[in-house]
Structure formats: structure tokens, C-alpha cells
Fold:
Amino acid sequence: MPLGAKEIILGERAASAFSDLERSKDPTAMSIAKRVRAYGRILLADCLHGEVVGKGQIPKALRDAHGLSNLYIEDLPSFWRLLYTIVRDGGSRYVVIVEIVDHRAYSRWFPGRKR
Structure:
């Protein structure tokens, strides 16, 4: 049974990346932005949809920057990735998208990770 979320929240860095993608006239950027919007609907219905990153595998840089205790990854077009966490407030779950990154940034955090 899917686990829904009350709301999708864009973290500061994810919001900046999404804004850049939305403003771009590049077809690839437009495709990535479209997929991010689609994942918003999917994650509201099932916040556990993405690939789970084990607690011990969350990069220190991401843990420190975002205070993460859990992390999930969704694939985007052109080898981009959407990274999100699930937070609880009272009885409600929220999906916080912390990063929307290209392959280069993702590979720095997860070198050699097979996807």
C-alpha cells in the first residue's frame, strides 16, 4: 500500500535548479523540468517511490548540508537525478526535494554507484 505525503517542498538548492530548468529554452532542460513536475504528483501519492539510499551511504556533504536522516533518488532524463527526503511533522509526512543535479554532481557524491 503506497504511503502518501501531505505536501512536496522544494529545498533552496532544488528550487534554484528547478527555476533554471524552467526558464531554459533548451529541450533537454525542458524535459527534465517536466519530469520533476510529474514526480511531484507521484511522490504525493507514494513518497517511498524512489530508490532508497542506505543510512550509511548518504554522503556526508549532503547529510551536513540538509540534515538528512533518509534519502531517496529518482532518475531524470539525461542522467540528471532528483534527491529527496521524507520528514514528519506530527502525523503528516512531507517530501522535501533537496537537490536536482546533473550527472557530474551526482557522481561526486556517489562515485562508482551503479544505477
Q: What stands out?
A: The chain has four helices and five strands. The chain has a mean pLDDT of 93. Residues 63 and 73 are 14 Å apart (CA to CA). The first strand starts at residue 7 and ends at 10.
